[in-house]
Design brief:
Blueprint: E1 5-6, E2 11-19, H1 21-24, H2 40-51, E3 55-59, H3 67-73, H4 75-80, E4 85-89, H5 92-95, H6 102-117, E5 122-126, H7 141-158, E6 161-163, H8 186-199, H9 219-243, E7 255-260, H10 266-275
Helix pairs in contact: 2-8, 6-7
């Protein structure tokens, strides 16, 4: 990770995360943290603070946001915070939209990366995982492949740290995914936090989840789970698309201003202090 800014005695360390549900933390449920989730970015912020005192953290990501929303709503606030570390994942929701122009999307993505790289901050980018959830989503596989190829090229061009999420075999286990099969579970978020910290050379003790091999399902059980998944997640998802609404329409960023992360107790301790 690049050197933080400061005069040696008072170093500025500021981590700003921008994006959509991937970065907001959806799938990693928390009863005490903003928007009811925790996620990999919170975990990275806490480990940064534990390894080096003085880290501040803001998370502007909101679920369901498209790339254009992230540019319009998160870019300028992020730049104004003068971050020394930025993480960006954006475009996944656009890939799942009907009629997305991938060339236009990726051109806008590169323009966003270019703006962020001008800050001099360490910039972390992510490829997208090829989620094997259902034949329903197979038509989007070609888009995901193109997206990943361009993200790799853009990361190399702008000197960004690339977390090549697509290559992580651990996510082939269904237990790394939330019930909707599109967002990571708590175990998935913890694993990704460890990967980001490893890429930044930050020490941590996050270890991969060790499971027994999954039990083999009967055909009847598999069909029952498929029907439940379609009814609980797929139908509502396409219903929202048809109505032009998203789950993020009424939500605000979880950490809209930089907060100093406690070295002990993490962000939960910060929330407990705010309630007192």
């Amino acid at each position: 990770m690049r050197e933080e800014f400061g005069d040696g005695s008072k170093v500025r360390r500021r981590f700003v995360a921008i994006g959509d549900s991937f970065t907001e933390g959806v799938g990693d449920v928390s009863k005490v943290l903003p928007n009811g989730v925790r996620g990999w970015a919170d975990r990275v912020a806490e480990k940064l603070a534990k390894a080096q005192p003085g880290w501040e953290y803001a998370n502007l990501a909101v679920r369901s946001k498209r790339l254009r929303h992230i540019i319009d709503e998160q870019l300028e606030p992020a730049l104004a915070m003068e971050p020394t570390l930025i993480t960006l994942y954006a475009g996944g929701n656009d890939i799942l939209d009907f009629g997305t122009d991938m060339d236009a999307l990726l051109n806008d993505y590169e323009l966003l990366v270019a703006r962020l790289s001008e800050t001099g901050a360490t910039l972390v980018l992510f490829t997208g995982f090829d989620v094997k959830v259902s034949a329903v989503l197979e038509p989007f596989k070609k888009r995901n492949t193109l997206y990943n190829q361009r993200v790799r090229e853009i990361a190399d061009k702008y000197g960004a740290v690339l977390v090549d999420y697509w290559c992580f075999d651990a996510y082939k286990d269904s237990r790394m995914w939330a019930p909707d099969r599109l967002h990571m579970s708590k175990a998935g978020h913890k694993y990704l936090a460890a990967q980001v910290l490893d890429h930044l050379n930050i020490p941590h003790k996050i270890s991969p989840k060790e499971w027994d091999p999954p039990t083999r399902m009967s055909m009847r059980e598999w069909e029952r789970r498929q029907r439940r998944w379609v009814n609980d997640w797929v139908v509502p998802l396409f219903g929202r698309k048809l109505r032009g609404v998203t789950l993020g329409d009424t939500l605000s960023p979880r950490w809209p201003q930089p907060v100093k992360v406690p070295r002990k107790g993490g962000l939960k301790k910060l929330m407990e202090g705010a309630k007192q």
